[in-house]
Design goal:
The complex is a heterodimer of chains A (about 170) and B (about 375).
Chain A lengths: L11 H11 L6 H9 L16 H15 L3 H15 L7 E3 L3 E12 L9 E10 L5 E5 H10 L13 H8 L1
Antiparallel strand pairs in A: 1-2, 2-3, 3-4
Helix pairs in contact in A: 4-5
Chain B lengths: L1 H27 L5 E6 L6 E6 L4 H7 L18 E6 L14 H5 L2 E3 L9 E4 L8 E12 L4 E10 L10 E6 L8 E6 L9 E7 L5 H9 L5 E8 L11 E6 L3 H13 L6 E7 L8 H10 L3 E7 L11 E2 L2 H8 L7 E6 L1 H13 L7 E5 L2
Parallel strand pairs in B: 1-5, 12-13, 12-16, 13-14, 14-15, 16-17
Antiparallel strand pairs in B: 1-2, 3-4, 3-5, 6-7, 6-11, 7-10, 8-9, 8-11
Helix pairs in contact in B: 5-6, 7-8
The chains are: A alpha+beta (about 170), B alpha/beta (about 375).
């Protein structure tokens, strides 16, 4: 079986393998979920008022992406690209690709990923406004990391929750 | 039925036995007892005794030795690095991303990740011995912009603080919801001549643990705690013409440096480029105007990227680096002081070097 389709998009098999990778649970999921519900790392936690289990949230979002024909890493890559282009503004708003107004806000220090793999990411907030519709999306470097490496878009009702469909429909 | 009862009893009994085994193991195997830490053996030769099993960072804080940390011991900021000469064991996976090869070869470790399991020999900069913990009262909270406030903390114990303008402190965020206590670093912005208080400029971070507390919970009259001072960012002792470049809350240490210059009657020629997205992001403009009157050779250049149409803005527009490139001709005999995001600093350094400024004359306090 070929691993790539004619247009070089990942095949269904490769998509499934990558989804399985994202859904791989760390040894102590309960502890991870407790950390994510608490305000230990960010005020209000990463799950918001969403009562679903962490990996139910991830599974549903990753499946939604799959039905839309995208992988989490593709979405994260595009988000990073917009952040990178917006960073040229040094904190001021810039027009990107003639379609978006992007503003990057950076703060002192690093954000920590709740998954137990160490390291930190810059405390940057990217605000993207579509010039045609006025639609505004906002994400952090940590959010992009969690989407790419863990398929996690945050729980419904949390401050930085991004609906996969809304994201895909607006940033590509 | 008796079979079920016996089975349940058997399983419960095994569970209880396992729990007892764990308690015994924890008491006798995981109990590292008291451990001695020797600090700077060849110079200060200080020895402290701590309870084993805890992170080295926490053990030192417990002995009132405050090692910088901005991530609450999670192994992400890299500020708590120190040299462990003996007793630390192998470098942990959680340390690796933040240690260079040279650092690893010379025994540098993240003190928040190293557990004290036996006697240790470590080296720390001697100036850390002068780091103190302070109790203060929040005397004033002042709005500077829509998302920045200035906080004035008047010292209680000790009553005075000594610091070099440009340094920062670590502000303790207490438990106020379901967070844990955590420290965040902020540059001191106040007049260093006033040793009975410090002022900080803090910009709100949505969802930030510390800034949420500062902006939504902290009130005038509340007690606060912080430790410090830390950092190497400071004014060189010369009268070389200089540029200051900052954005957002990066104005904080610059204000402190300007107070220092005023107090010392410095004739140093300084032009301060302050970048803002809109006019409502400009902070401390009145204070900068006062410095313009008080200092013989100080010029303040606010640069607004997108002035609002009805703002009547007549000053510089665009990026702060564009204004810098426009104004600077030959920077070979100058120096620069920068505070802000890594992106702003990197872009500014590029411009400064293109105008002839040597790298070693560029001093900066990066946000990350």
């Amino acid at each position: 079986m070929e691993n790539k389709t004619d247009d070089n998009r990942p095949s269904r098999r490769e998509q499934r393998l990558r989804e399985e990778q994202l859904l791989k649970r760390p040894p102590d999921v309960q502890k991870l979920e407790e950390t994510m519900r608490s305000s230990r790392l960010v005020m209000g936690g990463f799950l918001g008022p969403d009562k679903r289990a962490l990996y139910d949230i991830i599974e549903e979002d990753v499946s939604t992406l799959g039905r839309l024909g995208y992988l989490a890493e593709e979405v994260a890559s595009r988000m990073r690209q917009l952040t990178h282009l917006g960073a040229q503004g040094l904190g001021t708003s810039v027009t990107v690709e003639g379609r978006f107004e992007v503003t990057i806000e950076e703060h002192k220090g690093l954000n920590v990923c709740p998954w137990p793999h160490g390291g930190g990411v810059r405390k940057r907030i990217t605000t993207v406004r579509r010039l045609d519709s006025g639609k505004v999306l906002r994400w952090t470097d940590l959010g992009v990391h969690m989407i790419q490496h863990h398929g996690f878009f945050e729980g419904r009702g949390s401050l930085y929750r991004l609906e996969p469909r809304e994201l895909v429909e607006n940033i590509f | 039925m008796w079979g079920i009862v016996i089975s349940v009893a058997a399983v419960s009994g095994m569970g209880a036995a396992l729990a007892l085994l764990l308690v015994i193991a924890e008491r006798y195997i995981a109990n590292y007892g008291e451990c001695e830490i020797t600090i700077n053996e060849s110079t200060d030769d200080r020895k402290v005794t701590v309870q084993g099993g805890q992170p080295l960072l926490g053990a030192l804080v417990g002995q009132k030795m405050f090692i910088p940390s901005a991530c609450g011991g999670r192994g992400t900021c890299g500020l708590c690095k120190l040299k462990v000469k003996e007793g630390a064991g192998p470098v942990l996976p959680t340390e690796e991303p933040l240690l260079s090869t040279d650092e690893r070869d010379s025994g540098v470790r993240l003190s928040c990740q190293v557990k004290v399991r036996n006697d240790l020999k470590i080296e720390i900069p001697s100036e850390l011995f002068s780091i103190r913990e302070y109790k203060a009262t929040c005397a004033r909270i002042r709005d500077l912009t829509h998302d920045m406030k200035e906080f004035r903390f008047e010292l209680v114990d000790p009553a005075k603080i000594d610091y070099v303008p440009g340094q920062y402190i670590q502000l303790l965020t207490p438990v106020y919801k379901d967070n844990e206590e955590t420290y965040r670093a902020y540059s001191i912005s106040s007049d260093p001549a006033d040793r009975s208080a410090i002022e900080l400029v803090i910009r709100y971070v949505p969802d930030g643990i510390c800034t949420t507390w500062c902006f939504k919970y902290l009130k005038e009259g509340d007690e606060v705690r912080f430790n410090g001072p830390y950092g190497e960012f400071r004014l060189a002792k010369n009268v070389v013409p200089s540029v200051f470049i900052a954005g957002g809350s990066g104005i904080a240490p610059m204000k402190c440096l300007l107070h220092q210059m005023k107090n010392e009657h410095s004739g140093k020629e300084v032009t301060f480029y302050f970048g803002a997205n809109t006019t409502k992001d400009l902070a401390l403009v009145d204070e900068m105007d006062r410095f313009t009157k008080d200092l013989s050779s100080f010029k303040f250049v606010p640069v607004v990227a997108r002035p609002e149409p009805d703002s009547g803005w007549k000053g510089d527009t665009g990026l702060v680096t564009e204004a810098l490139a426009r104004d600077l001709k030959d920077a070979s005999g100058m120096e620069a002081y920068l505070c802000g995001s890594p992106g702003m600093i990197e872009a500014s350094i590029k411009v400064l070097k293109s105008k002839g400024m040597p790298q070693e004359k560029i001093y900066y306090d990066k946000f990350a």
